[in-house]
Specification:
Oligomer: single chain
Protein name: DNA protecting protein DprA
Helix content: 40-55%
Distance between the termini: 48 Å
CATH topology of the largest domain: Rossmann fold
Strand order of the largest sheet: 1-2-6-5-4-3-7-8-9
CATH class of the largest domain: Alpha Beta
Largest sheet: 9 strands, mixed
Domain Smf/DprA SLOG: 78-285
Family: Belongs to the DprA/Smf family.
Number of helices: 11
Number of strands: 9
CATH architecture of the largest domain: 3-Layer(aba) Sandwich
Shape: globular
GO biological process, one term: DNA-mediated transformation
Radius of gyration: 19 Å
Strand content: 5-15%
Order of helices and strands: HHHHHEEEHEHEHEHEHEHE
């Protein structure tokens, strides 16, 4: 079975979980997805770990066509690294995505002055208000707001951008058509109408704790800067900020509302390590 490089790249994205250790090294070694696909199927390179070849041999090769058909019916675009619509910024993140699924305005993925806003799922009313305020203001200024579609700060960021009639992008840790968080379909539809919903995972893929950590590199990678609104020390927001720092992005932080409360400790750590304090939206330079 012969494939074009684009077909092979999409197939590889289904065989190996996004962020799979080792796959990016193989991509760099071969720089030819079709040749890599053939090598994996025929096990002609003894330096490739058996687990990689075994996964390729066991894969159901009717699945790519099934998913492409489903996406076509739903209006979900599949964007591979070989497409001109693929954002250059994501080529620079750790283990760049081989393919993205996008529902909405794919042009926003190439915006150069977007702002990522992240924070706790268990956000306080104060932090929710802050996230909405910053998102509304920066969206009115013409900046796309990026977040992860979780409850709490993420939802506030998306909502603030929509309230300002601005643009927003949701980066999911599951498939675009999977109902997660539960009963959040109305917000997802609003984001599609006012921006884009994207994922590395097939449309019906269930969420997984690991998926959320993996997608954080994209939440940081698509933006010019990251704003952390509320975060504990061991949180996804700190992970996103770490990716931003490694990518050379500015990290802004809302000063903690209470230095004695652990729910704000992550902000204290970021500020101590050099994050830029943000007291007002105009403090953030994009």
């Amino acid at each position: 079975m012969s494939m074009t490089d684009k077909q092979a790249l999409f197939t590889l994205s289904l065989i190996y979980t996004p962020g799979k250790a080792g796959i990016d090294s193989l991509m760099q070694k071969y720089n030819d997805p079709a040749k890599l696909m053939d090598t994996l199927q025929n096990q002609t390179d003894k330096d490739i770990p058996h687990s990689f070849s075994a996964a390729a041999k066991a894969f159901d090769y009717t699945l790519p066509e099934q998913i492409q058909s489903y996406c076509g019916e739903r209006g979900i675009e599949i964007i591979t690294r070989y497409d001109e619509d693929f954002p250059d910024e994501l080529l620079e993140v750790d283990c760049p995505p081989m393919a993205l699924y996008c529902l909405g305005d794919k042009k926003l993925l190439k915006e150069r002055t977007s702002l990522t806003i992240v924070g706790s799922r268990e956000a306080t009313p104060y932090s929710i208000d802050v996230a909405k305020y910053f998102a509304r203001t920066k969206a009115r200024d013409g900046h796309t707001i990026i977040s992860g579609f979780a409850r709490g700060i993420d939802t506030a960021a998306h909502t603030g951008a929509i309230e300002a009639e601005g643009k927003t992008i949701a980066v999911l840790g599951c498939g675009i058509d999977y109902d997660y968080p539960r009963y959040s379909g109305d917000l997802k539809n609003s984001i599609v109408q006012n921006g884009a919903v994207i994922s590395e995972y097939p449309p019906l893929e269930k969420p997984d704790r690991e998926y959320f950590t993996i997608r954080n590199r994209m939440i940081a990678g698509l933006s010019k800067a990251v704003l952390v609104v509320q975060a504990g020390v061991h949180s996804g927001s700190i992970n996103t900020a770490s990716h931003a720092i490694s990518q050379g992005k500015d990290v802004y932080c809302i000063p903690p509302a209470n230095i004695f409360n652990d729910i704000y400790k992550g902000q204290s750590v970021l500020l101590r390590d050099g994050a830029i304090p943000a007291f007002e939206p105009h403090d953030i330079v994009l």
